[in-house]
Amino acid sequence: MDERWAGRGWLRPGLLMVEGVVGLARPHSHHTVQGITGAAGIEIGDGQGGRAECAAAVIPPDTVHEVLRGAAAGRIVHFDPESAAGARLLAMISRADGVGGWVRAGGELCSDAEWFAGVERSATELAGRDRHPAVATVLTLLPGRLEAGPVRLGELAREAGISEGRLAHVFSADMGLPFRPYVRWLRMRLAIRFLAEGHSLTAAAHGAGFADSAHLTRVCRGMFGGPPSEFSWIAWDVSRGWT
Question: Which residues are CB-contacts of 128 (< 8 A; sequence separation ≥ 6)?
């Protein structure tokens, strides 16, 4: 696979954004819903022989696609499909649409020039706003629990003095993402940070609470369509500690 990631990027739970060169990519899929733009235009394929030139596209999760012509400047954003922003993008498209539908949805993004800029702005605002006390407690506890293995919402709820059902509700409302996928993104972010610091894949996997390096690689490929090594360069931005 040709290099797809070059430029600046950042990662927070539910969201990975990369700005810079949009490189070629062979047919692949990922569990995220993806927005992709190219300042001078890009060409994408839908894995079924369909292809189109466009300024932007929205690609549904778990759908084979490829980048046939990249761009020297562009933006790629991966959203968890369970997040509020991911749901907005999913409402624009159908898996059955093929490349034509992806491009039509991309046109909607381009017609809103502030949309992508708003993603970063809203992420920053979300990180800084007041949260439900129980959610604030859980966010304090989570970093120390990741290396230990499974993180259970019920245990955290008891420590936060709230029912598990209520915590699930207020957590999703405050964080824009349900608890389980949120923890999965935290683990991925931690693993990528370890890799950027020079740790081995095995050490990064264990440090982030994955069973082993194969588990980490499998989850990363499933989420983003590539191995963890493709994303370790963005970890300088992870150190901002956005949650």
Answer: none
